[in-house]
TrEMBL record:
<dbReference type="GO" id="GO:0003723">
    <property type="term" value="F:RNA binding"/>
</dbReference>
<dbReference type="GO" id="GO:0004521">
    <property type="term" value="F:RNA endonuclease activity"/>
</dbReference>
<dbReference type="GO" id="GO:0016787">
    <property type="term" value="F:hydrolase activity"/>
</dbReference>
<dbReference type="InterPro" id="IPR000026">
    <property type="entry name" value="N1-like"/>
</dbReference>
<protein>
    <submittedName>
        <fullName>Guanine-specific ribonuclease N1 and T1</fullName>
    </submittedName>
</protein>
<keyword id="KW-0540">Nuclease</keyword>
<dbReference type="InterPro" id="IPR016191">
    <property type="entry name" value="Ribonuclease/ribotoxin"/>
</dbReference>
<dbReference type="Pfam" id="PF00545">
    <property type="entry name" value="Ribonuclease"/>
</dbReference>
<feature type="compositionally biased region" description="Polar residues">
    <location>
        <begin position="37"/>
        <end position="54"/>
    </location>
</feature>
<feature type="region of interest" description="Disordered">
    <location>
        <begin position="31"/>
        <end position="64"/>
    </location>
</feature>
<keyword id="KW-0378">Hydrolase</keyword>
Amino acid sequence: MIHTAPRRAAALVGALFAALLLVLTGCSTGGDGKGSSAGTHRPSASASRPSGGTTAPGWAKGLPTVPAGRLPAEAQHTLKLIDAGGPFPYPKDGTVFGNYEKRLPSEPRGYYHEYTVDTPGARNRGARRLITGKHHEFFYTDDHYKNFKAVLR
């Protein structure tokens, strides 16, 4: 048949496109294809959950882990704000986190964004933060970037 080659080519292109979508969204840590806007980054609520509940995801790169439900109530509240896309109480929420301390996996500038976790009794933003990665990774610090835990969602 003369028309078989174009059909096979179209099927191959479709299969390659589907595989690319699977790699970019289905096999990531929950990417939904949404970018950042107005200088803030708002990750999706669809971050994947590790199977078995005890295995750290590959993106944790050896960091200690903490289930989201074991974070302080204020951090859980900040996670809900991130999932909802705001509104955020602090102007610096959603801004680029530079990872200058090099305690998170090395990534290009703009990969990480930070959000304030309220600290009861603090007069300022306090020391607690949630850091998000471009592929919906979440990290928690309660000592102003000295130590991080990968948040399992």
